[in-house]
Design a protein that fits this description.
The structure holds 2 protein chains of 2 kinds.
Chain A (H helix, E strand, L loop, with lengths): L11 H5 L65 H18 L5 H10 L4 H21 L5 H25 L5 E8 L6 H12 L2 E10 L1 H11 L3 E5 L7 H12 L7 E5 L5 H6 L4 E2 L3 H12 L3
Parallel strand pairs in A: 1-2, 1-3, 3-4, 4-5
Helix pairs in contact in A: 2-3, 2-4, 2-5, 3-5, 4-5, 5-6, 6-10, 7-8
Chain B lengths: L8 H18 L1 E3 L2 H10 L2 E3 L4 E3 L2 H10 L4 E4 L5 E4 L6 E4 L4 E4 L2 E4 L2 H12 L4 E5 L11 H12 L3 E3 L5 H16 L13 E4 L5 E2 L1 H9 L7 E4 L3 E2 L7 H22 L5 E6 L2 E2 L12 H16 L4 E4 L9 H16 L4 E5 L1 E2 L4 E2 L1 H19 L5 H4 L1 H7 L9 H10 L11 H6 L5 H14 L8 H19 L1
Parallel strand pairs in B: 1-12, 6-9, 6-18, 7-20, 9-10, 11-13, 13-15, 14-16, 15-17, 17-18
Antiparallel strand pairs in B: 1-3, 2-3, 4-5, 7-8, 19-20
The chains are: A alpha/beta, B alpha/beta.
Chain lengths: 298, 473
């Protein structure tokens, strides 16, 4: 499915419905432009720039390896032709995730698995690479947040297909995070947004919800053993709960086991340093980058 | 006076009827056991486990009838603003976290807020001052310390920013003590008003409801704020946001009329935002902010209630974006008939206030109010006799008619440039921002006027000291 002219920008149901998956591709953008500028958009329409489709494997577009015995531990032989076919399968999956094609991406993931493409390759070259492209396009202003979130959801759906194999192979998520809006605060829009962005970046996030007391953060850290603990607050009256939570984690001797990151409207770098958090992100967009920086991952 | 309806009557009915369905079928989360019980006793259906209250339409309509169609906001110089459907609109300031000067910004301190209040006090088209965060003051005291700062530095109507229910009660105590010196009370002279915002979607917190409860019983106007963020806490469609916002504000009206039957309430859908889909910021200077504020005012007129809105800019400094966003959004809300419009001097998604911006906003409001005033047509203003007398002589300037009418007919401006280039250069080639900065300095250099209410202020300070002592213990 491709969103092109004629499709409403924000009709989420339409976007994920397989029924609308047969839309025509929009014409490719002119070679000299880097994408769509706002001025050129028709109001109410949304375009996703789509990378060129890899050549079809055969007329029906299906792989010829569908009946091959699955062995997720091994890649298929690196014979000429096959290598190209693997690349096509991965490119196809990547494109579907970038497009946010929730209906077809899990099927394409299954297809790649059945074709014997190595699990690690599907994750690294398909899923993560796709989200890197999405991240770049979002940063350059080409994509909007709902489009990025749809790609993240699509990536998660593909990941769900792979999950049993991931467990078998002992592959770990990029990072594990526990996340909550602090005690006394019931505003969770910022938290929800950052969580979706983190999931899109391949983080495993445990959402503790709103009005989370220090004890609940502590329990979550004990249970999930995360790399990062994130706290959010909207109000100047509740931001104090962040310091209180950090002090509690220290008292319980788990503070040193996790990095702590804070954010929210009243939070500043100075405040973050004052309560001895490890880092602070001023907005949802920069939170993932800051998290990666804190955890030393790319 | 011009009042435009952004949505026609038929569509307003559709939206409002959907809002009634939300109240009745979806309900509102109520985090306050006592108010929950009172709502059930009044005829609402309650689900104690989910803390949800379902409001029957008949009850909402019954409580709306108790709500007076106007609210009064007194200043401390004998002035009174009457906010009512179809009535005039006035502009107030807005709350924030930072104080911006030019491109620099820093946390608002007591000293900076006092400066802001003094500047605003000198600006005739800004009629009310809203309290704000004070960086160095503990959260439990920010509201009432801020109220004292406002009392000392401006005579405008005061709308403290409420941080805790206790803070709201202390402010009532301060205001009553101050008014008692002049033999008055809040009911006769509402120099201070209050309000709170529901957490969208459909969730009244304990703090918000407790603020309403602790300020009820004094005839003090209460603003019922819905502050949806389209696309984040409400549907991305503006119509959908209005369905939700109406339901939220109506629930607040019912609660307040149960707490204090006949309490003046401001029906406020105009704090709503849309989420910027690139930065995730809730906009304040986008065209949609104008539409939502004006639509909210139209619904308030339908319900025979006063209305409010908030106009700001998303710009991080005092610049052209700040001016154009305010002009567009503010004018739409003003022509839409919002009675109380917050945000004069606000910048950066309401995160900042700026004295220069307040001075510029005073100019924008002057011009916008002139537009709102419209064109007066009467036998006198037609000036037929004068036209026949002048024939082809272009000498209207020297006529008595001009002398008599020009001040009323033409908006005057003190800040914008109306000079030709050579004269503008002679005057220092100043941009609007520079002229605003100069005016701020001029206002601040003026000796403060000797106050006649020092006794009342002493009482306010004594109450502040008493409570600060208790809180800081």
């Amino acid at each position: 499915m491709v969103r092109g002219p004629g499709r409403p920008a924000c009709n989420h149901k339409a976007l994920i419905s397989p029924r609308v998956g047969r839309g025509k591709r929009p014409p490719p953008p002119p070679a000299e432009t880097s994408g769509f500028s706002l001025a050129k958009r028709k109001p109410g329409r949304c375009f996703r720039r789509v990378p060129p489709r890899p050549p079809a494997l055969n007329k029906s577009g299906k792989t010829t390896f569908v009946n091959r015995q699955i062995d997720t531990n091994k890649g298929i032989g690196e014979t000429p032709g096959r290598k190209e076919q693997i690349m096509h399968l991965i490119e196809k999956l990547k494109t579907l995730i970038i497009e946010g094609n929730l209906a077809q991406a899990p099927r394409a993931t299954q297809e790649a698995l059945q074709a014997g493409v190595d699990l690690r390759e599907i994750i690294d070259q398909g899923l993560i690479k796709a989200m890197e492209v999405v991240g770049e396009r979002f940063s350059s202003g080409e994509l909007y947040i709902p489009e990025m979130l749809l790609s993240a959801k699509t990536m998660q759906a593909s990941l769900n297909v792979l999950r049993p194999m991931i467990a078998d192979r002992g592959i770990k998520a990029k990072a594990k995070v526990v996340f909550g809006t602090v005690q006394g605060d019931v505003h969770d829009i910022g938290k929800n947004l950052v969580i979706m962005m983190m999931q899109g970046a391949g983080f495993e996030v445990y959402d503790l919800g709103m009005d989370v007391p220090p004890e609940k953060f502590y329990q979550a850290i004990k249970t999930h053993q995360p790399d990062l603990c994130c706290m959010s607050a909207l109000l100047t009256t509740t931001q104090g709960a962040m310091g209180k939570t950090i002090r509690f984690l220290k008292e319980q001797s788990v503070r040193q086991t996790v990095k702590v990151m804070v954010g929210g409207a009243p939070i500043t770098e100075e405040f973050s340093a004052g309560i001895e958090a490890d880092g602070y992100a001023p907005d949802a967009g920069s939170a993932v980058e800051k998290a990666k920086e804190l955890l030393g991952i790319r | 006076m011009i009042t435009l309806s952004i949505i026609d009557e038929e569509n307003r009915k559709k939206i409002l009827s959907a809002s009634y369905r939300v109240l009745e079928e979806t309900g509102v989360k109520i985090d306050h056991p006592e108010i929950f019980t009172k709502l059930c006793e009044a005829g609402c259906r309650g689900d104690e486990e989910k803390k949800r209250i379902y409001f029957p339409g008949s009850l909402v309509k019954e409580k709306l009838k108790l709500c007076p169609p106007s609210a009064r906001f007194a200043d401390r110089q004998g002035g009174m603003t009457i906010a009512e459907p179809g009535g005039p609109s006035v502009f107030w300031t807005g709350n924030a976290l930072n104080f911006t000067r030019g491109k620099e910004t820093r946390p608002i301190t007591e000293r900076l807020f006092a400066e802001f209040c003094r500047v605003v006090d000198a600006l005739p088209f800004i009629r009310g001052v809203v309290g704000t965060n004070l960086h160095e003051i503990p959260p439990e005291a920010k509201d009432f310390v801020g109220f004292r700062v406002m009392m000392e530095n401006t005579s405008k109507h005061l709308r403290p920013c409420i941080y805790t229910p206790q803070g709201a009660a202390i402010i009532v105590e301060m205001a009553q003590a101050y008014l008692a010196e002049a033999g008055e009370e809040l009911r006769s002279r509402p120099i201070v008003s209050t309000g709170y915002t529901i957490v969208s979607p459909l969730h009244w917190t304990r703090e918000g409801l407790e603020v309403y409860a602790r300020t009820a019983g004094y005839g003090m106007p209460a603003m019922i704020n819905s502050e949806c963020i389209s696309g984040a806490t409400s549907p991305v469609t503006l119509a959908g946001t209005l369905v939700l916002a109406n339901a939220e504000a109506l629930s607040g009206i019912v609660i307040n009329q149960i707490l204090e039957p006949g309490r003046p309430c401001i029906y406020n859908l105009g704090f709503s935002h849309v989420m910027d889909m690139r930065t995730a910021e809730p906009t304040t200077g986008a065209p949609e902010n104008g539409l939502l504020g004006a639509a909210g005012a139209a619904f308030a007129r339908d319900l025979n209630l006063p209305s409010a809105a908030w106009t700001c800019s998303d710009s991080a400094c005092v610049d052209s974006q700040g001016a154009f966003e305010r002009a567009v959004v503010g004018l739409v809300q003003l022509l839409g008939g919002a009675n109380i419009i917050w945000g004069a001097g606000n910048l950066e998604f309401t995160r900042a206030i700026s004295s220069e911006q307040a001075v510029i906003d005073n100019e924008i409001i002057t011009a916008a109010q002139r537009v709102k005033q419209g064109i007066e047509v009467s036998e006198e203003t037609l000036a037929l006799e004068l036209i026949q007398e002048m024939k082809s002589e272009a000498n209207y300037l020297s006529s008595d008619f001009t002398m008599k009418h020009f001040r009323k007919e033409l908006a005057s401006s003190g800040l914008v440039n109306r000079h030709r280039r050579s004269a503008w250069e002679k005057r220092g080639s100043k941009s609007l921002e520079e002229a605003a900065r100069e005016q701020v300095e001029k206002i601040l250099k003026k000796e403060p006027v000797e106050r006649q209410d020092e006794k009342g202020l002493e009482k306010v300070r004594a109450i502040e000291k008493k409570w600060l002592g208790k809180i800081l213990k």
